[in-house]
Amino acid sequence: MPKRTVKNDYILSRNTLAIITRDHQDCRSLILEQYYQEMKSLDAPVTILNRTCILYGADFEGRRKYAQHILKTDKKIPVSIIPQHGVFMFPTAATTNRNCVWLSYYRISNYQMHNDFQTLVTFDEGSLLIVDIPAKSFQRQYNLTGQLVAQSLKGIVLPDFGTCPFLTVQNNHFYNSAVIDQIDERKERILKLQP
User: Which Gene Ontology BP annotations are present (predicted)?
Assistant: First the structure.
């Protein structure tokens, strides 16, 4: 069973996988972090997103308007929460919908149709989550977020990291650094097992 704690004043990070809207007296958000960590918060998801955005230099509404401008849409807008750290979140429904789940773009390794109305999401560290959104709509949200990522990171050059700190280039392909770390760890374990 996952460890569940109550967390007030939660700040998103690279460890955040998803924020699930809850409509309970003792819990407005259920936060999923890597390795099956769960936290409850009395704050609504948008409050958590806004708090993190402000900490990193802009408010949620400003980041949302930027995404609207880039993507030329005003429905279910993905948001660059901490672009310099690769934290981009997208909603599965309108932010006012009590079934809305905010997902971290770079933490998703796979998604597939669960049934006609739900999508099964696999995160990069192995966690699974079923969300109430058809796979086709999920793909639209995922692709929109990819467009936002591409536009947001244009021209960002960081010392000693190349153009993007959370992507790694190997054999002329871009990989999520977390995936590369997992591959390297597996290689080390295999090498230790060999005589």
Answer: establishment of competence for transformation
Query: pLDDT, tens digit, for every residue of 86-111?
Result: 999 999 999 999 999 999 999 999 99
pLDDT exceeds cutoff 70 at 177: no
Domain boundaries, the chain: 3-152, 157-195
- Cα–Cα distance measured from residue 4 to residue 147, given in angstroms and rounded to the nearest whole number: 34
Q: Where are the alpha helices (DSSP H) in 113-174?
A: 135-152
pTM of the complete model: 0.78
* Distance in angstroms (rounded) separating the CA atoms of residues 151 and 172: 21
* C-alpha pair distances (Å), 156 with each of 149, 150, 163: 11, 11, 6
Euclidean distance between CA atoms 190 and 186, whole angstroms: 6
Amino acid code (one letter) for 157: V
